[in-house]
Amino acid sequence: MNSSVAQILIPVDFSDQALIALDQSYNLAKFYNAELTLLYVIDEASTVHKIFHKPVDEDALKKEIEEKIEELAATTSKKHKVKVNTLIARGRVYEKILEVADMISAKMIIMGTNGTIGLKKRFIGSNALRVVKESKCPVVTIKGRHPGVGCKNIVLPIDLTNETREKVNNAIELGKLYGATIRVVSVLFTLDEFVVNRLTRQMEQVKNFIKKAGVKCTAEMIKAIKGHETLAHAVVDYAAKVDADLIMIMTQQEGDITPLFIGSTAQGIIDNSDIPVMSIVPTIKREVEFSPY
Fold it and tell me: Which of 92, 102, 105, 108 is most buried, judging by how many CB atoms fall within 10 Å of its CB?
């Protein structure tokens, strides 16, 4: 593994969703001149497992995993002409994913998730949720249908916040890579003239900035159904309506007036979207104005 080359981390467990996540990484690796790092985490056996199951032959298990992950890496490298590294770790899944992401200075994490089991199977799995919440780099979660290769439409929800700048720049990078249209959207829960006017100006500034960067862009303001629709549902419904290939959100507090992409809202978007979601933790902490856009 070359420490000076950008790395894209892909946790794999050989499930269909993990392989779908891997499929989405090839173009990104080429665009960023990055290597792929496949990570398999041998989860620590729970107490229940130890009580009710026979002991596992650890050496045989590790050898089998090594053979499978090396075969996957070799096939991927040969077919798509990208450098693929492999790592096997032992411990809690989300902890090891975050630890390895820091260790290799990952540019992003791309991970599939089938969600948890039982009645909550539609929701994002606990490991993926912890990774999204705690990762220092963008995380793309892929659930549900197999996305097409490429990305024609990127939905970019914005609000009245300073850190929106960071999300816009990430969207522009991907827009240039795929020749995509960025669809800026704001969700209104109020008819307050002050808020509406600020959002309108914000959307125009963002749209003009994106177009100036050479990326196609549209902007739309949608009104939520008061008492019947959450911000998360409004964004997911809009993304489905425009046949989006990716939704980009922030996962920590962004601003001051409108509802925030934080906590239950961010989780709601990821939970309810069969469209891949890129979650970005803002790093800009100082007070800045968005007006330069």
Answer: 108
Q: Do 229 and 265 touch, CB atoms closer than 8 A?
A: no
Strand, coil or helix: 9 = strand
Give the whole-angstrom CA distance, residue 249 versus residue 92: 26
DSSP track, 30-59: HHTT-EEEEEEEEEPPPHHHHHHSPPP-HH
271 within 8 A of 122, measured Cβ to Cβ: yes
pTM attached to this predicted model: 0.81
DSSP H helix total and E strand total for the chain = 10, 10
User: Whose CA is closest to 88, among 64, 112, 124, 54?
Assistant: 64
